[in-house]
Amino acid sequence: MVTVRAPATSANLGSGYDVFGLALGRPADVIHVEAADETTITVEGVGSEYVPEDPRDNTVGAVADALDAPASITIDKGVRPSSGLGSSAASAAGAAVALDTLYGLQTDPEELVRVAAEGEAVVSGDAHADNVAPAILGGFTIVTPDGITTLEASLSLVACLPEIVVSTRDARAVVPSTLSIDDLVDTVGSAATLTAGIARDDPELVGQGMADTVVTPTRSALIDGYDEVREAARLAGATGVTVSGAGPAVLAVCREGTRRAVASAMVDAFADRGIESRAYQTNVGRGAEVVTRSAW
Q: Which residue numbers delimit the GHMP kinase N-terminal domain (predicted)?
């Protein structure tokens, strides 16, 4: 048996739609796999009632099929489905690493990302890798058709998750299909600034680089109270705030020593709108890791 911890992730980071991703220190899924003649899936934990256990409908089943690695798989969900924190990606990434380890496949990490992305297509309809890349590789990732670039980073973060559901399909549907040259210039400038900030571990630059005039305005409109939460976080010490992935989670980058205040301010701002939420005080995390391995 092999057990793997796979982290939550935040994709896009404002200016890096379908390109940027960031592994979070918490929350995380835990995936247990044991060799079997055919794949079976059991789902436990937060939101487990919303996750199908039929391997044909589960991202993990698609991963097992792609690796030709049948197994008895238990998913202990720590990342709520439809959260904007890469819930399905955490399961797919954890299963990819666990099955690769269980069967000694020694698959190239970037190939594991591709396999996990194909699994993601079961849930979202698209084989995009902006969540599974950081879930497997850790840190900050830049995904392009030519490959994946990974940078280590050290940032204080808050991921605030309201009791709202925004589906990935709905969030992708509201993204504009075209943009003006002015918006293109602004987006490129923000993305470059954010990348420089990551390389320098500079929360001020990262916060500036999260500015986005194209995707974030359309997605934030799906999150009741977003503008108030964003303003409260900034007043409490956040350098940048944006929608995490498809939402409804809201991600804040924090100045040193302000993380607790930012978390409290975000929860209070949602509460003022009558919405319960949970804030994860966290940082940039590592990729999926084997935590136990035993003979079978």
A: 60-139
Does one domain contain both 108 and 54? yes
Q: How many CB atoms lie within 10 A of CB 53?
A: 15
Binding-site residues, in ranges, read 80-90
CATH code, domain carrying 128: 3.30.230.10
Query: Are residues 175 and 142 both part of a single domain?
Result: no
Cα–Cα distance between 157 and 215 in angstroms, integer? 21
Catalytic-labelled residue, pool 120, 150, 193, 239: 120
Where is the binding site for ATP, in residues? 80-90
- The number of folded domains in the chain is 2
Whether this prediction's pTM lies above 0.85 is answered by yes
Q: Which of 9, 39, 150, 168 is catalytic?
A: 168
pLDDT in tens, 74-97: 999 999 999 999 999 999 999 999
- Are 143 and 150 spatial neighbours (Cβ–Cβ below 8 Å)? no
Q: Tell me what pLDDT residue 148 has.
A: 96
Same domain (yes/no): 26, 107: yes
Nearest CA among 2, 175, 161, 172 for reference residue 87: 161
Residue 144 shares a structural domain with residue 175: no
120 labelled catalytic = yes
228 annotated active-site: no
By residue range, what is the domain housing residue 276? 156-283
